[in-house]
Structure formats: structure tokens, C-alpha cells
Write a structure and sequence with these properties.
The complex is a heterodimer of chains A (about 120) and B (about 110). Chain A has about 120 residues and is an all-beta fold. Chain A has no helices and 13 strands. Chain A is globular, with a radius of gyration of 14 Å. The termini of chain A are far apart. The mean pLDDT of chain A is about 90. By secondary structure, chain B is mainly β. Helix content of chain B is about 0%, strand content about 55%. In chain B, the strands form two sheets. In chain B, strands 2, 4, 5, 9, 10 and 11 form a six-stranded mixed β-sheet that branches. A five-stranded antiparallel β-sheet of chain B has the order 1-3-8-7-6, with no helix packed on it. In chain B, a hairpin with a 5-residue loop joins β4 and β5. Classes of the chains: A mainly beta (about 120), B mainly beta (about 110). Chains A and B meet through β5, β11 and β12 of A and β5 and β9 of B.
Chain lengths: ~120, ~110
Amino acid sequence: EAGVVQSPRYKIIEKKQPVAFWCNPISGHNTLYWYRQNLGQGPELLIRYENEEAVDDSQLPKDRFSAERLKGVDSTLKIQPAELGDSAVYLCASSLQALTSGRINEQFFGPGTRLTVL
Amino acid sequence: AQSVTQLGSHVSVSEGALVLLRCNYSSSVPPYLFWYVQYPNQGLQLLLKYTTGATLVKGINGFEAEFKKSETSFHLTKPSAHMSDAAEYFCAVSFSGGYQKVTFGTGTKLQVIP
């Protein structure tokens, strides 16, 4: 079974440029998550989708970040314009629906996209 | 607010020695607790999780963790370290009673010395 696929794996851009990250979740997983992992830190949730609906985007900096999950499968995370502080690893994860019978389902992570903003 | 604290950003052990990675959480409601491992340039992989029931949880690769409510701890152990265990380990917490996001600790890098 294929895991979560992310591309690109690495991206270097100048500040103020736009950038986009793509994620293909595990087949059949309704829930998709985008996390940001700063150097030396754990991942922090940016947005969670249940199918095509963004159900938790409270941590997404909406002035410059946007995300979409058309058709409830692939997802794209965009930053425009990028700032120096956006340098981080952006992780995508997927799971079956977040809760089943009150039990939290395991999240499966992709390898991430390492963004460097110069 | 929920949080986890991992004691020690770097831990070194000799090959064959006991591995002990410490995690304490703060919670006013019953927590769900997780340990993830991250190898270089890879995503996170679930090692084990505690939701309810038995407080000693066994995971993959010979790791286990014990939920101690009185100590608000969920330390990760392995009796004998292998070179392949060298990675970064993250403790994480969520809560029961509806979906709550998973909050990760800052991670502990495990070095295994031959």
C-alpha cells in the first residue's frame, strides 16, 4: 500500500515569492492534515480536512497561507508571499476519519517538504 | 491547554543499554498519549499509543511505554538499544470526548553509541 506522497521534497525560494506544496493521502483516508515543523520542534497543526471540508484551520495564518482539497483527495498548501520565518518542514498526514467509535485514528505522515526561504 | 514536556532534547546510550525517554503531560481530562519516531528526512511513524485500558502499552520495534496517571507521565523504554534506534522521538497528547488535535512535544534525539 502506498503511503502519503508529498512533493516537492525540497524547495528553496526568495522571500516574497509564492510557493505551493502538494499532498496525496493514503487511498480511502477521509481526513487530511497539514503540519508545520520548525527546526528543533514538534509538528504543529495548520489545518485539518474531513473530506473536502476544512474543519479546523484555526492555526493557519490566513493572510498568507491557503489550502484546498478539491474532491476530497489531493491537497495543496500555498504560501504567498513567503517570509523568512516560513522556513520549516511542511508535513502532510492522513487518517481514516479522525474519530471512530470515540477512538482517535492513527495519522500516517508523509516525508515532508523542506522549505528554505532566503 | 494540553501540552507535553519531553525531558532532554538529546539522549545518548550505548548499544545494548536501556533506552529511557521521558514524557510528562498536562491534562485536566483523560488523555490519549502517543509516541512517534522520525528518522532523518522522513515523516513521523507511530510507535505506540495509549487510549484506555491497560496502562503498559507495547509498540513496534521492542518499545513500550507506561501511562502513570499519578505522575502524569508516559515514558518510553526499550530494554536493549540497537543502532537502528537512532532517530528523533516525539511524545504527543490528545484528549477523549470528541476530536481534539494532537499536540506534539519538542522531541528527543536518541544517539546510539557502538
